[in-house]
C-alpha cells in the first residue's frame, strides 16, 4: 500500500523511536444504543517497525475521556490477547472498540515495547476523537 493510500485509510499517525502507529476510527450506529445513552466506535490500529532491530509489544496504556470530562485509564498486557513481534519492515494490525455514555470523547495513550537488546521504550498512540457524525438530511 502506498503512503498516500495509508494516509487516506488511517487519519491519525504518530512515530516514536522508529515505530509508527496509525489509527482509523469509525462511529458504529448499528452497535450504538443512542436512546439508552450508549455510543460505540471501532478503531483500527496499525503498528509499523521502521527500525533496524526486532521489537516486541509488551503493554498498552489508554486514556479515554468523554464529553463530561470523565477519564478512564486502561492498562494491560499486549493488545487483543497478543504481544506481537515485529521484525524490521513488518507491521501488525488489530481492531477494537470503545463505548461511551456521551456522543463524543477522545482516546490517546502509549504502548511499551522492548527492542532487540531487551530495553524497554514507549511508543505514542496518537490522540483521536470519538465523534458521532451529524445526521444526514
UniProtKB/TrEMBL annotation:
This is Co2+/Mg2+ efflux protein ApaG. InterPro entries: ApaG_domain, ApaG_sf. NCBIfam families: PRK05461.1. It comes from Alteraurantiacibacter lauratis. Pfam families: DUF525 (PF04379). Residues 13-137 form the ApaG domain.
